[in-house]
Structure formats: structure tokens, C-alpha cells
Write a structure and sequence with these properties.
The protein has four helices and 14 strands. The protein is α+β, with helices and mostly antiparallel strands.
Length: 230
């Protein structure tokens, strides 16, 4: 049975921070968590598909399962767990190969190297030459930028993408509107303000559940305009 990734987000007391949790059942009979170094990429995805990445601390790379995510907006978020194989001196690593149009035909090997606690891309063929060897610079270069297509689309690593709707501020806005009603439930004008926001939020969740993430993002942006404090 193939490993099934299992992720979730956890709200905190402050909407500016939430947690991403990896609940995947690592270990026997599948693979150990420590057999791969993980980098978590997180981006707020706009309606037009633009990805605005947020900074995430992925250390310790071999064991981390819960990550703090700082954010400034509600909306559609993409979470990508990039799993890099751990460097092995017994494996023959190869650099990328380009076609006649200078497009990548074969992706380079990528690894996590525990002694330096860093990630590397093969730039030359090597067998038994670690990145920190005297001649390691001839075979390896450190990866410092992970949110690029060359890394995210590389078939030598495993990428686990996951989408979710983060709506902490939006939920507070709807709750505040309900609280503001007090006992004035007979005032339909005030009731309609609450129902409009509630329907907008419920619709965003329904769209997200249906994998219509761009439409869910649109709902949250409309709700944001109705909630100036958000």
C-alpha cells in the first residue's frame, strides 16, 4: 500500500499565525520520516494564480512534523512538502541534461546532506564524493532557493501538494457581526448584514472543498471588503 500523505492546518489565538501539521503515517511498512529531508513551501494563491510565498522554518529537516506559518491575509493557500533523498555515498549522482533548445531533458539529482544540514544539486557526476569533500564543489552546488520550477518540478524528489482555505479573520468578522446583533434579531436590515457575510464564508468553504480554489479566494476577497477590520 502506497504512503498516503495526511496534512491539516491548525488555527491559533492569533490570525497572523497558524500551524501546518504533517500527520502522515511515516514508518513501517512504508518509509521512515528521517529517510528524507523536508522543505515546506507555503504560498497565498491569488485568483490569477500568482503565488505569494511566505517564509517558513523547515528545521529540523529530518524530523519536523509541525510548522508555524506567518500570514497577513486569509484566502487560498498552497502547501507543498518537498521530500529530498538523503545523500548516500553508494549512489551515483548525475547532473541535469539539456536538450537542443536548452530545456531540461533530464533533471539533476537533488539531496539533503546531514553533516552540513543543507540541500544540494548535482552539477557533475559523482560516486562517493560528498558535498563537503575537497573536490565536492566540482559535483555539487548548494540549493538556496526552493520555490522555483527547477526544484518543484524535479522528478528526483517527491512533492506533496496540498490546498486549503485559511479563513481565521473571516470567521472572526462573521462572529463579530452576529455578536453585534445582540437581541436585535427582529431588525432584518441588521440581520441581512450578518447573513450576507455568513453565506459568503460558507460559500468559500464549499468551493474550497470542491477544489474550486480560485472561486473560494474570490469569496474571501469580497468578504474582506465587507469586513474593514479584517
Amino acid at each position: 500500500m502506497a504512503l498516503e500523505p495526511d496534512f491539516c492546518i491548525i488555527y491559533t489565538a492569533e490570525c497572523s499565525v497558524h500551524k501546518f501539521q504533517d500527520k502522515t503515517n511515516w514508518g513501517a511498512p512504508e518509509v521512515e520520516r528521517s529517510a528524507g529531508g523536508h522543505i515546506l513551501l507555503v504560498a497565498h494563491v491569488l485568483q490569477d494564480g500568482t503565488e505569494n510565498f511566505v517564509t517558513v522554518d523547515s528545521k529540523p529537516y529530518l524530523t519536523k512534523l509541525e510548522y508555524d506559518i506567518n500570514n497577513s491575509k486569509d484566502g487560498h493557500y498552497l502547501y507543498e512538502v518537498l521530500r529530498f533523498p538523503v545523500y548516500s555515498p553508494a549512489f551515483g549522482y548525475e547532473p541535469e541534461q539539456l536538450d537542443a533548445n536548452d530545456e531540461i531533458a533530464v533533471y539533476a539529482h537533488l539531496v539533503y546532506y546531514n553533516p552540513t544540514d543543507k540541500f544540494y544539486k548535482a552539477i557533475g557526476p559523482s560516486l562517493g564524493v560528498p558535498p563537503d569533500a575537497v573536490d565536492g564543489l566540482l559535483s555539487w552546488e548548494e540549493i538556496t532557493e526552493f520555490a522555483v520550477d527547477e526544484i518543484r518540478e524535479n522528478d528526483k524528489i517527491i512533492v506533496y501538494p496540498w490546498h486549503d482555505l485559511f479563513a481565521c479573520r473571516s470567521k472572526k468578522c462573521v462572529k463579530d457581526e452576529l455578536i453585534a446583533l445582540g437581541c436585535g434579531c427582529e431588525d432584518m436590515t441588521r440581520m441581512m448584514k450578518y447573513f450576507k457575510k455568513k453565506v459568503m464564508l460558507d460559500g468559500a468553504y464549499a468551493l474550497s472543498d470542491n477544489q474550486e480554489h480560485s472561486k473560494a479566494e474570490a469569496n474571501i476577497r469580497l468578504l474582506e471588503n465587507m469586513c474593514p477590520k479584517c
